[in-house]
Fold each of these.
Amino acid sequence: MFKVNENYLKLPGSYLFSTIAKKVSEFADANPDKEIIRLGIGDVTQPLAPAIVKALHAAVDEMANADTFKGYAPDLGYDFLRNAIVENDYKARGCDIAADEIFVSDGAKSDSGNIQEIFSADAKIAVCDPVYPVYVDSNVMSGRTGEYDEKTGTWSNVIYMPTTMENGFVPEFPKETPQLIYLCFPNNPTGTTITKTQLQEWVDYANRVGAVIIYDAAYEAYISEDNVAHSIYECKGAKTCAIEIKSFSKNAGFTGVRLGYTVVPKDLKCGSASLNAMWARRHGTKFNGAPYIQQRAGEAVYSAEGKAQLKEQIAYYMNNAKTIKDGLEKAGYTVFGGVNAPYIWLKTPDNMSSWDFFDFLLEKANVVGTPGSGFGPNGEGYFRLTAFGSYENTVRALERIQKL
Amino acid sequence: MFKVNENYLKLPGSYLFSTIAKKVSEFADANPDKEIIRLGIGDVTQPLAPAIVKALHAAVDEMANADTFKGYAPDLGYDFLRNAIVENDYKARGCDIAADEIFVSDGAKSDSGNIQEIFSADAKIAVCDPVYPVYVDSNVMSGRTGEYDEKTGTWSNVIYMPTTMENGFVPEFPKETPQLIYLCFPNNPTGTTITKTQLQEWVDYANRVGAVIIYDAAYEAYISEDNVAHSIYECKGAKTCAIEIKSFSKNAGFTGVRLGYTVVPKDLKCGSASLNAMWARRHGTKFNGAPYIQQRAGEAVYSAEGKAQLKEQIAYYMNNAKTIKDGLEKAGYTVFGGVNAPYIWLKTPDNMSSWDFFDFLLEKANVVGTPGSGFGPNGEGYFRLTAFGSYENTVRALERIQKL
């Protein structure tokens, strides 16, 4: 009789956002007259930029003609996109990354879930707490995380690095040495970030202890301050210790388009085993390339027209972030993030639990956010609002919150 | 110091199609005057059907407008596509499959590579020999296959089921009981298939021994004979023992578009563990939904217009298949497949090895095919040609082969 992967059965309950969706749906059913404003999930709302729409249409037309039709894409991505990434995301920032170190994919979620596969089954992972759930859950599925403790909401074999207001949301080097370190800056969910100098310390640490940093740079486009790195490869020595995962979801509104990439430097090795070659093998075996149409859309992100339009789109969302931040502060809340990221992380008032505040906000202001505790035990007492709504809704949500 | 997944290092050499590409490229460089015709890789060449192009453009336009813009898709697929699949691929064939048993993905290669994840690490797999390399390689990466024997080209912990002219390309039940059985009918690479009665015997066998069949139905649209099942769920009892993987690549030319789906019935359980729930969890954790644009294109495959256009497209390729089959037979070759599948599997003449015949065909006829031995030891002495070229090139290739 066949048997299942028992690690899956260790995963607790349902996914955070499913629970939220259920609660919201129940409230909406019971209160059909109330207009709910959703500032919960990190999904964009602005339409695709005209330059991207144009590129998509052009690529579709190519697929309609035998002379220009494209079948299987190169597993690792078309050169036109990999070269555009190299030029714009790396060379322009002084980072020496080559096109064959770029792996184009259907998005950062797939990559951040799959990347653990190329590491040993007993690799010890370290994550910030609170954290994007995919890093931990994908390692649970692979059996790396030990047992779940329902009381503490933690796994026995995971190193948690608290990031809270007490340490200014800057994780400290863990006491126990990890083999894999997941870092996401600007951070989801806290919306905070660390300086380039602080990131350099992490790179030095990883090189010193022989760890690999999985660096999630999905929110890089929202950085507004000068002393923050847009790529981990701005730090010296990162090519021997870091993999960088990038998304087009947040800088170009591709959440429903699906495109991302991962950088695995050729200098990243364990003895003679090249992680670049291993990830290429995984891509070639379990993936069949990102769609041609999407890769042309990705290329348009780097066109002069595309860049100008997306700069505006990001400014639009960051104006929402400012609106939320200022509005909450005016209402007396303690607020973090929102300067280099589209997320605002607030301290719940009166020591309310994250879920109590979720219910309070939903019932009293009809605004949906995300309870911080859903991202890990150290998220308890915090709450996330996102800047990805429309400006009008964001303003109205804040007006309601200020009246509470 | 971090360690890598050592299983990856067991994988022999480079991927079959990379080796072919290298050989062809070397030949082309050395013989710039020769016009090479490629009937090797299973990639389509006809442009997307007009109904699909129309759906793609319409979906792109929706993404350009704030009112109709789509962000994250539901992880498991939009209802409009899952319902169209249920109606057309299952209900119309008398199969009782529900929409929540359909998981839309970026393609059958991803699904057939990832599906092994939800099974136990020590699950014994059985594959046909020759076989699509992804089934074995993805299990190598997970450590299920034991050690590789370079002499025999086999893995110590894999059950091989020979499919050769001697057994009419019908695999026999293995002596040792497997937990996972990979079956692909119509078959890649042999282009042959089994009858519905024979498939029913496999379903009965799997239910009897408690195995799961991973059924790859990527070539279903090419079936021309009545006694062949289009879906394994046409067989009684398949819902308690079979997962079906379907592609839009071959029935609709989506190799560069990327769309597929997998059916995991709710009746498929190991004790109280539901494989449907486990696959949903994997999809939700390591995947972020197939793109909206692609899902609308998938929906168009099932429109009246789309169906009529794709019927013509398949007839076009099957006419190529007939051209290859008839042409080879006329030239004295022993030929299989090409009736219910776009692949022709020929016995190499004069006991030539598969690779010798590859070189012979490339040098003398400037035609590229795929050596059978690349699909497994029992593919030695065979050679695959595909019907996915243009009609003109197919005719010319056969003229050249007939002159040899």
Note: Chain A has a mean pLDDT of 97.
Amino acid sequence: MLTHAALHPQLEADTVFVTDLPLSTVLLARDANYPWLILVPRPAGMVELIDLAPQDANQMMVEITICSHAMQTVSACHKLNVAALGNQVPQLHVHVIGRFKDDPAWPGPIWGVVPAIAYAPGELESRADQFRTAINQQSAD
Amino acid sequence: MLTHAALHPQLEADTVFVTDLPLSTVLLARDANYPWLILVPRPAGMVELIDLAPQDANQMMVEITICSHAMQTVSACHKLNVAALGNQVPQLHVHVIGRFKDDPAWPGPIWGVVPAIAYAPGELESRADQFRTAINQQSAD
């Protein structure tokens, strides 16, 4: 029987829920500096991508693809950054970030460059709605 | 007919060849700060992971898995970092980096933190040999 992991408190604090895909829960980071999705596979005890069962690793790539297309649709970003780092939060999570040539960290990676900026009231939920719609559309294709 | 991309000059300059997997050429970064493989899928014109054909995206995950296991075998790293960023070098490439809790960038990401350190004479080739052996072993499993 599959055991589902509880969301790490740091991921819980830093994000809002967007949607559940078959393998992963999709979250939106509370940081208006960048459009930034985080995919958290739900099987318990995952730390590295290679901890995923082979069919889950395939599905991970499918869900990265879905969220990447949704990111392009919603944000019209110039570049996608996809990464599984996890040096600070051990629960396996995959970042799908929309990058812009005038964003605060360009062309470097985003982590630790500038403090998070809160979204304006209502904007976080509205962004999460846009991503949910785009991800559902991609999943249906 | 499949056209193969030439390796971007920056990747050529910063790495040595390790081996060819079915989809990707595997390179080792000339930076002794971190054990650092770079996978470059050979189809021409790839920029984002989502540019890969669906069967190539599956194969990309297989090859990330092979190189991740090889990284653990060769380096005994504490954590894997896997990332497709490409903000500076547009040719699609995937980093598979072995991280240590006492490496110069821990716990942040490695890019742009400290200048690259050259390997000692012979050590780069010896490391590339170790990775080639481990990757071939993983591919055979």
Note: Strands of chain A lie at 15-20, 24-29, 36-41, 79-84, 94-99.
